[in-house]
Amino acid sequence: MSTEHVISDEVLEIIKLAISRNEKWMAYNNSLYFIDRADVLFFKEQEAAEEFATNNISDYDCFNIIYLQSVADVLQQISYGQMINEQLAGNPDANGLYNQEGNAFTDDLIDHIEQQQLLNNSKNVSIMNENNLKYLQDSLKYHGFGETLNPELEKQLQKGETEFSLAHKTEVNKREIEASLHFKKSDSTDMYFFNKYDCKTKNESKGESVEQTFYINKGTGVTLKEAYNLLNGRAVHKELTSKEDQKYQAWIQLDLSAKDKNGNYERKQYHQNYGYDMKEALSYYPIKELLKEDDMRALVRSLEKGNVQMVTLETPGKDIRVFIEANPQYKSITVYDNKMQRLDKDKREELMKKPEINEEKKSKDQKQSLNGEDQAEKKQGKGVKKGKGEGDDLEGKLLPKKRTNNTKGLSV
After folding, report:
1. 260 located within any domain
2. Domain interval for residue 100
3. Does 390 lie in the same domain as 375?
4. Which residues contact 131 (CB under 8 A, 6 or more apart)?
5. pLDDT value at position 117?
6. Is there a single domain that holds both residue 137 and residue 257?
7. What is the pLDDT of residues 6-21, one digit of tens each?
8. Which end of the chain lies in a sparser environment, N or C, as judged by fewer CB atoms within 10 Å?
9. Alpha carbon distances (Å) from 166 to 95, 169, 184, 191, 224
């Protein structure tokens, strides 16, 4: 078993963090010559540290425990061999400040090692800041904000303030859209996180200004283009996370006729168990783009992002171009003519596949959706059932989000 050890710089930094959390009992693997971060654990109580050391004895591991209040305590209680020689190789003035066993150190030697650690910490902070910047830049790009904000983002990170915001303005579908992106520094580290953004644009059909706050949850959320589609009443398909940290698929949609107490539009959510199969809904129409696998996948991906997509219907005598969008509420697709006027029930039935799909073969869901869409258009969306909110695993039910706190926005 080794009686001398080399401790990594990262472990010395972790020791400081543990002390700040009042975890002053350290268990370290005494079987190893080089002690890295995976070889140390910290505890608030001596009993817990001793229990861990006792339960983790093996042919390769043997844990000792020490009590510490500073990095100097570690340097005084653990035997160092080659580490001291390496530390002093570049500092001849420090020679002779320790004995051959490495058990007795002077204050000068401790100061020297801690000064070296500070230099290493400075380098580590620089690397961490670079990684944090890259992480945030990638996050902005992933969420559809491009790279134009990168210079200002780096400038704000260098200031070191607790939180800051960045303004962004661009066009989606030739319509102006504005966003204010909010960043906040972690309470426990120097890392910054992109938490949310406020989005504002004009509704395509009404021409009125609409805005919403969208939250970034564990690095993922609604993209800028998806936010634009949501603010125009369309549905977007996302992977969400429940309160129990379980992943699931759902369609989300904003109710543009109702706002919560924070001024945000209420959200409707259609869980994966709600039963909406968009591919089946598309199959009722003679859509040319469904004939090739690649074209079909591209069409489905576009509709899942909330886009209005132009397709070609192969009808007897001629091809007709229409626009479609996903309609998860009625388990169907909404169809528009080339002037973006919504087609009524009779016109939609006329365009459906024949004779493969007729009145006798139509599913019950399809009939209900045709009637339901017309009723919804007349009632302007009134009477939609409200559910319990995101994260509730309710099979076959509509799950709109219902907020119980003062946080503003949509969390994905």
Report:
1. yes
2. 6-123
3. no
4. none
5. 54
6. yes
7. 777 778 888 888 888 8
8. N
9. 53, 10, 12, 17, 14
Domains identified in the chain, total number: 3
pLDDT at res. 190: 82
Pairing of strands 209-215, 410-411: parallel
Lowest mean pLDDT across 37-41, 49-53, 88-92: 88-92
Beta-bridge mates of residue 336: 323, 342
Count other Cβ atoms within 10 Å, centred on residue 334: 21
Same-domain check for residues 261 and 298: no
Q: What is the mean pLDDT of residues 130-135?
A: 88
- When pLDDT is averaged across residues 302-325 and rounded to a whole number, the result is 94
Q: Is residue 241 part of a domain?
A: yes
